[in-house]
Write a structure and sequence with these properties.
Elements: E1 2-4, E2 20-23, E3 30-34, E4 45-48, H1 51-59, H2 66-83, H3 87-96, H4 102-120, H5 125-161, E5 168-172, H6 187-196, E6 200-206, H7 213-224, E7 229-232, H8 237-242, E8 248-251, E9 255-257, E10 262-265, H9 268-277, E11 282-285, E12 291-292, H10 309-312, E13 313-316, E14 326-330, E15 343-346, E16 353-356, E17 359-361, H11 366-376
Parallel strand pairs: 5-6, 5-8, 6-7, 8-11, 9-12, 11-16
Antiparallel strand pairs: 1-7, 2-3, 3-4, 9-10, 10-15, 13-14, 16-17
Length: 382
Amino acid sequence: MADQDAQSPEGIEPPPLPVLRWAEPPEGPALVLLDQTRLPAEEAELVCTDVPALGRAIRTLAVRGAPLLGIAGAYGVALAAVRGDDVAKAAELLERARPTAVNLGYGVRRAAGAYREAIGKGTGPEQAAAVALAEARALHREDVEASGRMARYGLALLGELLPGGGGHRLLTHCNTGSLVSGGEGTAFAVALGAHRKGRLRRLWVDETRPLLQGARLTAYEAARNGMPYRLLTDNAAGSLFAAGEVDAVLIGADRIAADGSVANKVGSYPLAVLAKYHHVPFIVVAPTTTVDLGTADGASIVVEQRPGTEVTELTLSQAGAMGTDVGGLLVAPVGTTAYNPAFDVTPPELVTAIVTEEGAISPVTGVGLAELCARSSQVTIS
């Protein structure tokens, strides 16, 4: 296991990560992304000048994470509109890029709806494109604010569930920080809040197979913020629970069904089972935009299947989201097939609480989720 116990200088926080930004250089509009396939070795930007390029970036995980995908999808629609491309076709392409992540479709539909409404009122294409861009920027601002509220609610919940003295030992899976959000993230933002208040004893970071989002990205963010963290292989989590080294599990979500079932990066469900057995709180932190009341239950969630080569080979993607793989090492015999779902689904009875920007619900029920979503629709972000 890798260990890192450095602390940031008191009162000093690192500058925000330049994860996603809209740019209008002389040669034309573009969506500029921090290429997450190159982290942690290199902080490099990926410039998407059209929707097909953005679609590739989404599929190859150069940009990823539920809230950020919604923002990227909205900006993608605006990009198509500003360029004068077919907005409906662009929206369809973007929605298909990652089927499990509900926020992506939400962001796409929101910007596309604003564009259609403007066109329907007789607005010209250029003005309608400006409306779509304004909608994307509004969603971006809302996510920043939602991230801050989730952190506050999550930190308060930890105080209730873990009232004893001493710092919290928190286990997290995949990546849920600034790299997935307009703000400081979802589950990671709660851990970061605990760190800033001197209440984080240890952040246990699952490496998260097969693409190592925990090892590459969460460890990168934890180190960047001076948090005490330690990296472990996914299948070592059981021994941590058995040793009494985990006080709570914090994860994000890519889709939450109407009954409270949670789809998150594969490996989340086994953590929930372990947490239940060891009487450890299992907490999901996600914005209400991740709740999909149109999906009845966990069995109805479409789970994305990733290429088997992500399991059977070790590959260095030096060209990042352009899809050019350089170097490769077989770790299984030639011809081996692999089962490689991107997500698994945790049933609501294994979830201690779901924390959103509108508060936390526990126990997790369909009624409670519906009430949170109804409350969210009434919130005005200034």
